[in-house]
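#struct-help
A.M.: can someone run this one for me? Single chain, 417 residues.
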Amino acid sequence: MIKSFLINFIKFLIAILIIGAGVAGFIWLKNTAPKVDLEPVEEKSFTVDTQQIKVKDFKPENIAFGSVFSTRQANLTFPIIGEVFEISDDLKSGMFVKKGSILAKLDNFNQFAALNDLEIQLSLNKSQIDEIQSEISSDEAQLKELEMQLKIRKKQMSRVSNMIKKKASTDSALDEIQLAVSNAKSLILVRKQNVNRLSFKIEQLSLSNQRLLISIKKAKKNIEDTILKAPFDGSLSNINLAVGENVSSAKFIGNLSDLNFLEVSFNVPSQVFAKFDKIINKEVLVTWEQGSEEVSNLKGIISRRDALVNPQDGGGKIFAVLPKPPSDFSLIPPGAFVKVKYPVGILNNVIRLPEEALYEGTAVFVIVDGRAQKRSVSIIHKEPGFVYIQGNLSENENTIISRLAGIGEGMKVETRK
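D.P.: on it. Structure tokens below:
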């Protein structure tokens, strides 16, 4: 047991010696270490670009893209079925045609044959009417003679009746006279019935003639429909027709666009669309570009907006009327994709800053006593490269317009000279 105690004591003593040696070594190293003088760290200052705050009224312009189209555009078709008989030399894409110009014709033999047949039927009906009217005239003349004969017979019957009373005649003579009167009345009745029947026949033929006249108008319209004419002055496009081709009303021949009714449509954001009354009748600049080069430009007038709102961004479509071309072609043709510079109205009491000044979408930094100070703002309008804002900003304050990674409240900054 004494042996075990001695072993544990020796182990404890060794541990004490090791710890003591370590403490002594630490004290020696600390006392022999060279002295290091601590220098204060200087706060870093960032050089930035600034812009002085100016609160003013602005009339900014925006850029949009759209397409030119004609509000008066016709799809050319034949309204009837037929074979193409003739095509005008003007029926080509890109040609300008005048109203009423003949563009193409269909074979009209069947239409003229139908018209001739109807006109012959009409002539036959008129001939029958003339014949019946002559018969009626004859019957009416005979009717007058029969009525005169009836009067004479009645006078004879009266005289014979008086003679019988005086015993100067016989009853058989009276019977003969009465029979003659009855026959005369029958003949008159037959003639009147014949005149009425013939009159009804004329009325039926007249109604038939009216129907024939309507059919003749239709036949003449069918003949007119074999000729394709330009409904108005305009420029042709997408022409597709050949001689001998069988066509119907479903056959699309081409487009005719009236260059006097050109417009441009373009989309605007919801802020502009909602305040359309501020920009109606304002001027826009429409530019047709090929790559980075300008081909031509026109000025237009904002006329109206679409009735529907774009459900994706809340904006909508605006229409501007382009001027009538001075000749047979427009500087910007229908179908052209164009750039449109348009006004957005008057912005009152706003600040215009480069878009680089905007941080986190709703904040800017101003310099106060050499340090950055964050200010919340509201965006009134955006245009390429710039934003128009309002917020807790004072006139002539300096706003940081440099993009500075890690900028924060209280950061030391200085204006670039």
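A.M.: thanks! The mean pLDDT is 86.
D.P.: also worth noting: Residues 81 and 135 are 46 Å apart (CA to CA).
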